[in-house]
Amino acid sequence: MRFEGRRTAGKAPVARWLLVAAALLGTVVLVGGPAAAETEACRASAEQGCLTGTLDTGEERLADVEVLVTPVDQQGQPLPGVEPTTVTTDDNGVWSFAFSEQGRFQVEIVEDSLPDGVDALPSENKLLKGPGNSVFVNGQLGGLASGQPVILGIRAEGFEAEGSDLDYFLQSSVNGIRLGLLLALASIGLSLIYGTTGLSNFAHAELLTLGGFLGYLLVNTFGLPLWPAVALVAVLAGAFGWFQDRALWQPLRRRGLGLIQLMIVTIGLSLALQYVFQLVDTETIRITTGIPESLQIGSIGITWQSVIAMIIAVVLLIAVGFALVRTRIGQATRAVADNPALAAASGIDVDRVIRLVWTVAAALAGLAGVLYALVTNGVKWDSGMQILLLLFAAVTLGGLGTAFGALIGAMIIGYVVEVSPVFGMPNDYKYATALVLLILLLLVRPQGLLGRAERVG
Amino acid sequence: MVDDNKHTQPVQDEAEDATVVDTATDMSDTSAAVTAAAGGDVGRPLVSDRVRQAATYVAWAVGALIVLAMVLAFLGVDAGWPTEVGFSMLDAAVDPQTAAVAVAVIGLNIHFGYTGLLNFGQAGFMLLGAYGFAISISEGVPLVFAILIGFAASGLFAVVLGVPTLKLRGDYLAIVTISAAEIVRYVGRAGSPAVVSERTGGPQGIEGQEFRGPINDLSFLGTGDFSIGSLDYIQTGANSWWVRLVAWCIVLLCALVVFLLVRSPWGRLLRGVREDEDAIRSLGKNVFAIKMQALVLGGMFGALAGMLYILPASLVPDSMGRTLTFYIWTALLLGGAATVFGPVLGAILFFVVRILVTGIADNTVPDSVLNTQQAGQFGWIVIGVSLMLLVIFRPQGVLGDKRELRFNV
Predict the structure, then answer these.
(1) Model-level pTM greater than 0.80?
(2) A62, A219, A411, A450: least surrounded by Cβ within 10 Å?
(3) Nearest to B93 by CA among B353, B328, B348, B383
């Protein structure tokens, strides 16, 4: 769990954040060595709950560090009459704490027990953060047998940055290309829908979230292997797109509802879908837990999942591009995008083309969603919304309604978002960079990069 | 009041009926062309008249139910959960934040209802107004100037957004406003650089007591509790009668301003731009300038709404994100766009109906199916679906005039 992009240039020694995702399903523990259960590791059961974590600076696992666990009430005040417990990490840096009653706990590293040069850090998660460097945890009975993971932040000082700024730039570039490809996958569909029907689909990003959630269900609930599940997600999302057009958009088009009204309908749909996702899960969900294996090329690290995701995206983008340019149905699609009335007059079944566009667009978006959930840290019920702005920026940047414009726009936006921190843009603003870029472009070239220079006013 | 509008409408009179046939004269318009290509059954009603009639009765019944529950709750009748939900609805109906949203909706009504501008960043205008006001007060600026700074921040934002987009097709404004509003929120909640986050307070925002003082100092009410019916609040303070009084007086004032503005020649110009931009241009008017004026004015209403919104609570940037914008849109369409009181009614109805749906779902469906948290989420799903249904079946909302909403940008 290395966090790229946190180094601040010019500050030596550079302190590196090492947040240790502790013992997610025990995988981390196993990496450390065969003897994971040297001390009497707590096993959770219906009567007993466990809190557990691993202290790892990335260089070494910290043994004999004391962790103080205090039962507290909901306001975070220590419960009267209950003594805090101190637990100690074993040789693998693992600590665990057993309890028999559900409740809230304040967990804190005893600073004095840390080796020299290692500091405890306050939690980055606002919801969990307690006073000082402590975190609050709601202890539940049962659950994972290996216990509830608790993340405590530690920082090893005196780490010299191992990479140069060039490495940082290269790593960000790879991440940028990855994000760009996934955005492209989703935005081509958005652009085609806009091109053929004139609709700005605000619910498009919910298809991405849907993809992530479907992937989670298929892999974790139904136990499908990962890559077949990804393919199935694309099929299911495509079916949803087909159904959407059949049940909603086609009847509304026939009814002659205005484009603005249709756009507001998509907003309503997006809102409703978001809360449906929230009914399923309110937290970030991860399709695969555990640390994925990664490929190291020079100083650039990339997980195999990302590599495969990028290959899938490239292949599909080429396929869609080829289909649009060379096949009859692709030409028909472009004809409809160009001028629906004329296309209809020359014998093209406009409704069929639009139905196909919806299906393909939804399938691509669902696929992009599941891949996005795989290569980033999972997906949340509202992650679609954040992606939507990037998608709109990409589509507008490339030229509304042009499929290849969306492709270029997405690559630019993805790259800019990931690389802007290298050039000193604070991480908080990296999404804002893409949107500022969009506004600036509209000032000088309102039709977008590939859009036709027609009057758009 | 709505009827007066008819004389200024450039659209031809049509029967007030859902089965009105869309004339679809503009063949260059994509949707019309697609529809024509689809077989020409334009304007075919989606549901039969009988269903429509039934839906109307249901709407009236729900309305009566809401009023009844609220009246009983106001009188202090305790009849189990129905009156509890009634009290929650009553509380929400007089809440100062409801008033704030109403002001934001009035602003959006100037944008969308009267001028046809697609502003999807109203929450961004609110946030800027709120920041301008709250930061000024906490830096010691006098109240009047603090309010003016809030207005200025929002007005400037409107100009910056308007310049690149108002000459383009409507969806560009939509995309740029939603993006820009998000940028404002990102910047507001960012922890760096220090020069910004020291003043905005980062994700935690600004505490209420930092900026509430000067408004409460103006209060002529006493201290201590005061109750009307079952409504019981303190007289002056954070969540007080004073804040409620100020908020709702501002709502009435805003409604009055809009009432006067839209009857002025300028108001007719706005509607002219909405109906046919080219026609107005051919009359020698500067359409860009008119749109810009509308965008700035509506944005200022947004700023005022932002200041009111934070008054009873604190300024938290994430509470004024895209979701709030979407609520504002729902409220506008619910109440009726291009009407004077539609926005106010819509804002109240939006919150009240959500509480009703959530309350009923929570109290009648067993917890094993839907627990309290899930009932809340269910309420939002209903809001989303009703936004869709509303636009499809009753785009004019409760108070609106259907003929005012037949434009397309």
Answers:
(1) no
(2) A450
(3) B348
